[in-house]
Fold each of these.
Amino acid sequence: MVLGGSRPGQGVNVYFDIDGVLNLYGPDPLSQTPDDQDLWSSYRSQSMMLTYSPEMIARINEILAIPGVTPFWLTTWEREAAWFGSQVGLTGAEEWQWLPAVGMTPSGQWQKFASIRSHLKVARPQLAIWFDDDLAIQSEARAWTDRVGAVHAHAPDPRIGLRPSEVDRMEELIRSQTSSR
């Protein structure tokens, strides 16, 4: 079962990368400014691979429970993303569909970009939200999201991952779409 599944033309799809978004690079958040207040109050490291904020995961779980919201994995972890989700406590993450994300397509396009474009043509949600730190260097993908308009793409700082303000913005966008039905 995928949480919040909706018919084409309805609902909100949220696409998550893992590394640099939910799982930050390094054992602690590394902000450019020492007085940065837009951080979670705590981070947890598990093994050498996982560093995340339990608060962030709890907030994301609350937001993804809003009716009409469907989460997807769009990460190079691909089918291993379910393991990550279960380790950090993302509700139902083992059931989230994952989209192909490794490397480039045969035509030379970033695979994540090709996958989300193809998926959105079929799923046709009212709104899509895409979190991927690599969007910072993928100008073609960013330009496409600007042209499409119904896709909000955001590139978190990979040394920090999603910030509280970014999760708040995700909730605002979702509530603006789901409360209008």
Amino acid sequence: MAEKTEAHPRAEIGFERRRQMQVRQSLIAVLDAAPPGDSTHTALQEAAVDYMITSMTRLDVQDIAILVRLKIRIPKDHADAHQGLVDLEARQARARTETKTMADALQGYRESGQDTFAASATALRHFHAEMQAMMTPRKNPYEPYTNTLFTDDDWTAIAGTTETSLATEQEQYTAVKSAAPD
């Protein structure tokens, strides 16, 4: 999995997104490899879902900041781009809903005394499928705009990294790695 290095805020955003995707995909691979009903990886599932909820919440804040800037800065006569922003905003709202649903499933799992592993794993698979569908295609159609319309100050504000956010991300990532099978 991706390892952390000191980076430009835009690179930090990319790093966070890649690591979140790697955690999600790795967890799904572990769950898919386990026999039906096998709850061997409950610690990994909890740690990974905690990580993904925190990560998706941060990514959503970043995405909103990007969307707001794009709406303001893309020339008004670029109608296709602005229509795409409407679609993007709808996908972002859907991602927020899916993240909340996943957070609710984790809370229900914990409140049940971890007796609902199968339901939690099903919710996780649904979340993964939805995220995969929303993130396809992977090519960012707004990159030409962000490359020319955003400054380093914009990217610093969008990244929103703080010592606390970096420490939380590292702590949760370490918990995922610790719970992962060898």
